[in-house]
Specification:
The chain is an alpha/beta fold and 279 residues long. It has two domains: 135 residues, Rossmann fold, CATH 3.40.50; 112 residues, 3-Layer(aba) Sandwich (Rossmann fold). The chain is 42% helix and 13% strand. Strands 5, 6, 7, 8 and 9 form a five-stranded mixed sheet that branches. A four-stranded parallel sheet has the order 2-1-3-4, sandwiched between helices. Helix 5 runs antiparallel to helix 6. The chain starts with a helix and ends with a helix.
Length: 279
Amino acid sequence: MKKLIILILLLISYFLFPMLVYAGDIPNRIISLSPNVTEILFAMGLGDKIVGVTNFCDYPEEAKKKPKIGGMSNPSLEAVVSLKPDIVVMTTDGNPKEFEERLRSLKIRTYVFKARRLSELPMGIRELGLTLGVKDRGETLAKELEGTMNKVVHSSLITPHSSPKKKVLFIIWPEPLIVAGPGTLIDDVITLLGAENIAAKAKTSYPKYSIEEIIRQAPDVIFIGKGHTDIKEVSENLLKRIASVPAVKYHAVCYISDSIYRLGPRVVQGIKEMAICLK
């Protein structure tokens, strides 16, 4: 009898848990306040339910056609309210906490996507899918991502960890010189690929770096993230000033797409791009 009661309680918990997570009706009007969230929503087949995105949400192509609510750090409260969302999906990485509080004060439902590291992405997708009433789609997308990442990790693209680690620098912007430091998605990827991020011991996630430090550290490979301008032209002066380091001297400078910046389904593409450059 005791076992039967436990079984019944487990079954109730299984079916009741999603309802508790939803904390309301399944949303039909969704606003996304982050490009990576927008990509995840489209990947889960929720594109038709998205009624607003940020100015930086440019993938997939359909995202560009959605009404804009401003930037990530400065979204327009008026624009958000005017779109009458059932839920606003935010992130802990880029959206101000104060904006979430203002939305809640107006009785607008919010959800915060908390994944910030590569290892946290699959669970973040599962939880988001559950919250938005598409648990199965979230689970499928998370499993696909896990499977693809696992294949990349065990493919010939990855440098064996027993080999001497290549020293790597990832440049976010050349002038002023900003690089990817500890606690970032990019740092996670560099570690995953069996390389050493020379900025890993910096005090901030995206530190300002010096020419002298690059020359002293002598990276074997330099990655430069593609921005919304001609990044190769913008980087010319910097590369001339560090022409003596191995990465520049032996033509190991690689330009990487913005997929590596976004903690979403396309991050695997960025991992592959970086892996190829490290071979």
